[in-house]
Amino acid sequence: MTEREWWQCATEIQARWPNREIPRESIAIWFDDLREFEVERVKAAIRSLYRDEREWPPNGAQIRGRIGELGSDDPDEGEAWRLVKSALMKHGVYDWPAFYSALERRSPALAVAARRYGFEPDGYLTEQEGIVRAQFRDIYRGVRSERAERDATEGLPTAGLTRLERFDDERKGLRRLEAGRVLPGSTEIRIHKRTTEANDDGGTAA
């Protein structure tokens, strides 16, 4: 989005929320939050926020967050659990690549959560399924929350801050995945297999 296009968006914000005049200095700063997005996405986010019946105009960070929400196709928590069970029953818990690939096609966040949980044979259909489901739900929430935080901090200087440096490394890894230079999830699958092997031997995974 160009700066000119952003000022047109700012005019629309002011028109939709006439109860408060936005300082030009604030509008200029918000452009830095949003310059990476296409103008149509920014406009869609603004109009979506307006239809939420917000009393006050959104700032750049709030518009950025809404773009992320509108661009996500993650299933809700109930549907996420159904998809995990379906993939396990279809592919079998010993065919990890097919299991994770099925989840990845539906939602990358869902696949990451499943890898972090580390499903074990038959563990999802025991009498403890309610506990397993609750544990997985919490991990899935955490993955989505972390992704939102990572997206919100994109473009910020890392400034030697550990969390920002990790987010920056993750973004670089995602770009390599998109370029096809590594196999999706290959590292995490290897980690999961080592964890499972350690548990089978009665040891504790690192």
Description of the structure:
By secondary structure, the protein is mostly helical. It contains 10 helices and no strands. The chain has helices at 3-16, 24-34, 39-50, 60-71, 77-91, 96-106, 108-117, 129-152, 162-178, 186-200.
Brief descriptors of the model:
68% helix, 0% strand, 2 domains, 206 residues, mainly alpha, Helicase, Ruva Protein, domain 3
**Order of H and E elements:** HHHHHHHHHH
Level of helix content? 55-70%
Radius of gyration: 21 Å
- The number of helical elements comes to 10
Strand content: under 5%
Main pleated sheet = none
The outline comes out as elongated
The class by helix and strand makeup works out as: mainly alpha
Mean of all residue-level pLDDT scores: 81
Q: Total strand count, please?
A: 0
Topology:
Elements: H1 3-16, H2 24-34, H3 39-50, H4 60-71, H5 77-91, H6 96-106, H7 108-117, H8 129-152, H9 162-178, H10 186-200
Summarize the structure.
This protein has 206 residues and is mostly helical. It has helices at 3-16, 24-34, 39-50, 60-71, 77-91, 96-106, 108-117, 129-152, 162-178, 186-200. It starts with a helix and ends in a 6-residue tail after the last helix.
